[in-house]
UniProtKB/TrEMBL annotation:
Lineage of source species: Bacteria, Pseudomonadati, Pseudomonadota, Alphaproteobacteria, Sphingomonadales
Localization in the cell: Cell membrane
Protein name: LPS export ABC transporter permease LptG
Residue intervals passing through the bilayer: 20-40, 108-125, 309-326, 338-356
UniProt cross-references to InterPro entries, sorted A to Z: LptG, LptG/LptF_permease
UniProt entry keywords in alphabetical sequence: Cell membrane, Membrane, Transmembrane, Transmembrane helix
Annotated source species: Erythrobacter ani
Membrane topology value: Multi-pass membrane protein
Chief location: membrane
Domain of life, per lineage: Bacteria
Length: 365
């Protein structure tokens, strides 16, 4: 195997340009199709609140596009890899490169370099754009696409425990003693965990101690009776500081903010395996783009007229999608504590790196 991976500047620029164009074309196609399908299912909910119209639909689309772009960029790199390599193979360009003395690694080197640049862009895009879109969209969805409270630090989907009891809220706004909750539900449970009563309220404010519910409605599970009540205070052991601490959303935090959150959780002895797995995956996830040219390289080699090109393309696609399946499964296991966070985030990457490299060396080098 030759170690000069870029012997021709012209060839490098040609392949890199071809690869980038196909990545962008596939990504735009996927995002447009998936966004259209998403809008078909979400438009009704978006237009339900009074006053919502086309501007809100455009706002929803602007928040979903970064999410879809981040999620499907690795898939776009995989599909672009297969399209590029199959085209080069069919046009006998790979044969010409091999005849000129280039090794399989030299043929793939421009694409690997391009994929590395895509990985860096993906990391920066996730940190600067996607996390903010996640935070804004979750807060908006939590109020059913209505008016999001005009306050700093708005969070959504709050889930808190007070002994055996549970307090949930659609959104949390502000901080400290000025913290307000909206869309509140309080579940009072017995020692065995069975819910005895449920109280729903439009909001809650800190009463010091406890949380004063606004317009509460109590449902007695045992008697199956519903009644409007007033002056109800719940969660007397939950302070604003505890709620701020428990309601953090890792998906809405940047890489550096998540690092600080993990340190804060460690300081008080809280479980951090899910956050650590997410933290490591912030690095390994974008790097998955670097694997795609290697896993799809099986489509580049072998004579097109041999009739095996389609089979090779299918094998390359299968290897790529197998990586995504294993990666998601490992990340889920890491979040539940089944795997160490580092292993959950990095094991699939290194496993398929070895698989792709082994296949390439054994068959082409």
């Amino acid at each position: 195997m030759q170690l000069d991976f870029f012997p021709s500047r012209t060839l490098t620029l040609y392949m890199a340009k071809t690869f980038v164009v196909r990545i962008l074309a596939v990504l735009v196609m996927l995002v447009i199709v998936l966004l259209a399908l998403d809008l078909l299912s979400a438009t009704g909910d978006i237009l339900t609140p009074e006053g919502n119209g086309q501007a809100e639909i455009i706002r929803y689309a602007s928040l979903r596009i970064p999410q879809l772009t981040s999620r499907f960029l690795p898939y776009s790199v995989l599909l672009a890899t297969l399209i590029t390599l199959v085209t080069l193979n069919q046009n006998s360009e790979v044969v010409a490169m091999k005849a000129a003395g280039l090794s399989a690694h030299q043929v793939l080197a421009p694409m690997l370099l391009t994929a590395a640049v895509v990985a860096v862009f993906s990391f920066a895009f996730n940190e600067r754009v996607v996390t903010r879109a996640n935070s804004a969209l979750k807060a908006w969805e939590a109020v059913d696409y209505g008016q999001v409270p005009a306050a700093s630090g708005t969070r959504s989907n709050i889930y808190l425990t007070d002994g055996t009891n549970i307090l949930t809220a659609a959104t949390l706004s502000r901080s400290g003693d000025q913290t307000t909750l909206t869309g509140v539900t309080w579940y009072e449970r017995g020692p065995s965990g069975i819910i005895r009563e449920q109280i729903t309220a439009t909001g809650a404010t800190y009463a010091g101690p406890g949380w004063l519910l606004e317009n509460p409605v109590r449902f007695d599970v045992g008697g199956a009776e519903t009644e409007a009540v007033s002056g109800v205070v719940v969660g007397e052991t939950l302070t604003p500081e505890q709620i701020d601490f428990q309601s953090l959303d890792p998906d809405a935090q940047s890489f550096w903010e998540l690092s600080e959150t993990i340190d804060a959780y460690d300081a008080v002895g809280r479980r951090t395996s899910e956050m650590r797995a997410n933290w490591w995956h912030r690095l390994s996830g974008p790097l998955s783009a670097l694997l795609m040219p290697l896993l799809g390289s099986v489509a580049a080699f072998g004579l097109a007229r041999s009739g095996q090109l389609f089979v090779r393309a299918v094998i390359g696609m299968a290897l790529g999608f197998a990586y995504f399946v294993v990666d998601n499964a490992a990340l889920a296991m890491g979040s539940f504590g089944g795997y160490p966070p580092f292993l959950a985030a990095w094991a699939p990457f290194f496993l398929f790196l070895l698989v792709g490299e082994t296949v390439l060396v054994r068959t082409e080098e």
